[in-house]
Amino acid sequence: MTLTIDIIEGVAPYEQVRTQISEQARTGVLPVGYRLPTVRALAESLGLAANTVAKAYRALESDGVIETRGRNGTYVAAAGAAAERELAAAAQAYVERARRLGFGEAEAVGAVGDAARAAFGERG
After folding, report:
1. Alpha carbon distance 115, 57 (integer Å)
2. Hey, where are the domains in the chain?
3. Per-residue pLDDT reduced to its tens digit, 59-117
4. 4-8, 34-38, 91-95 — which one is most confidently predicted on average?
5. Distance, CA of 122 to CA of 26 (rounded, Å)
6. Architecture of domain 7-76 in CATH?
């Protein structure tokens, strides 16, 4: 597992850790069942506070990307299907909210496109 933290980037270090591990798990660079370093070990290797890495691990666990097995360690979870279901549920909730606010399909889709471009850049 290779992570890099860019202090100048302006993105919180815990978010950089969360994003990089999530992306590596999603793309298979970190396979399902891969044992992640302990919070302390990863924090030390990245030059971060243990609380920073712990916050990233908590967010990843909440997202279903990793799972903690007590004293046995933290592992990449089989989260593909669960993540897709959560995305679909979030989309459904958004559509229902947009409809309650009086917007149609075109406005709802346009708002999502704008938000996605802002969050992910033009790469989509």
Report:
1. 26
2. 7-76, 80-123
3. 999 888 999 888 899 999 875 556 676 777 788 899 999 999 999 999 999 999 999 89
4. 34-38
5. 20
6. Orthogonal Bundle (1.10)
- Structure tokens given for 40: 């302390």
Q: How many residues are present in the chain? A: 124
Question: CA-to-CA distance for 43 and 106, rounded, in angstroms?
Answer: 45
DSSP secondary structure string, the chain?
------GGG-S-HHHHHHHHHHHHHHHTSS-TTPEEPPHHHHHHHHT--HHHHHHHHHHHHHTTSEEE-GGG-EEE---HHHHHHHHHHHHHHHHHHHHHTT--HHHHHHHHHHHHHHHHGGG-
Tell me which residue has tokens 């798990």: 25
